[in-house]
Amino acid sequence: xxxxxxxxxxxxxxxxxxxxxxxxxxxxxxxxxxxxxxxxxxxxxxxxxxxxxxxxxxxxxxxxxxxxxxxxxxxxxxxxxxxxxxxxxxxxxxxxxxxxxxxxxxxxxxxxxxxxxxxxxxxxxxxxxxxxxxxxxxxxxxxxxxxxxxxxxxxxxxxxxxxxxxxxxxxxxxxxxxxxxxxxxxxxxxxxxxx
Length: 195
Prior knowledge:
By secondary structure, the chain is an alpha/beta fold. It has one domain: Alpha/Beta hydrolase fold, catalytic domain (Rossmann fold, 3-Layer(aba) Sandwich). It is 37% helix and 15% strand. It has 8 helices and 6 strands; from the N terminus they run ααβαβαβααβαβαβ. The protein has helices at residues 2-8, 40-53, 66-75, 102-108, 124-128, 130-140, 160-174, 183-186; strands spanning 59-64, 83-89, 114-119, 144-149, 178-179, 193-194. The strands form 2 sheets. It has a 4-stranded parallel β-sheet with strand order 1-2-3-4, with helices on both faces. The chain has a two-stranded antiparallel ribbon with strand order 5-6. α4 (102-108) links the parallel β2 (83-89) and β3. The radius of gyration is 16 Å and the shape is globular. 32% of the residues are buried.
């Protein structure tokens, strides 16, 4: 699901970096990931330091599904101030488990713009808590926005174009880019105008 975004965004001046988060077999539940959440911050920190070393100043996190839970873990504990915005795609929640309670975590993300995207045919834990996420986000963050994509399932099959357009327009408003000042960075595969 992230691949179409990563393939399209360089054409619009965005460089992307994929971070390998801890992953388990498909038959595992969200609760099986709880012990792995302790690995998340160091992976995000390493990625941010790598981007900063390339003189990339406008850093945005985009995460899907369990990746959004992991991004929330990072953003509610010790995020780098270089993070300018956050895009959560198909974020679920489990209010009975504090590590997976993304509604509660959204209340703690106050200093950066947040885009919460989901499909109206998404998974039940995503749909069931959409209104709760909306209330929590709007109450704590004036830069929070939720968007539902009609006809989209959890993987946005046949809705990638719409998903990309929503993200691009939101980024133009909430994390506009600037020209690279380090010419060495632009010779390493980055687009001339990096965001």
